[in-house]
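Thread: quick sanity check before group meeting

JM: Hey all, I'm pulling together slides for Thursday and realized we never actually wrote out the predicted structure for the chain we discussed last week. Dropping the sequence here so it's in one place. If anyone has concerns about the input, flag it before I start.
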Amino acid sequence: MSEYRYVDLDLDFNPNPLTKDVPLKYETEAIKRSLKNLIFTNKYERPFQPEIDAGIKNLLFENFNTIKLVTIRNRIELLIKNYEPRVTEVNVVTKQNEQNHAFEIEIYFRIRNISQMETLRIELQRIR
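JM (edit): ok, ran it. Output follows.
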């Protein structure tokens, strides 16, 4: 039996130089990778799960305002609640960085059966 509860592939797919295997992410890093993947997934990108979509990329090209910050926060919280059962007590904080035309997102969460709160920081930026 494995000593780890949560294990995922490292989706950067940079092989280990010695074994040539794809590295794995464990525990907290596996969950953080999963959350990033959920947030950056667009509708119809996942086979057999076309409904997964936060719609975040589309919001990046609209004008910055408070309503958009609340919309992003609500969409991310709902997405995590619906598609990441390993996470509880989710709190999303969004800030806008007008100089870089970006959104700074901080996700505070607790992993099931682990008492420590974790933080994931993501910057969403328009790329033209």
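AS: nice. Residues 66-83 form the longest helix (18 residues). The two ends are 48 Å apart (CA to CA).
JM: adding both to the slides.
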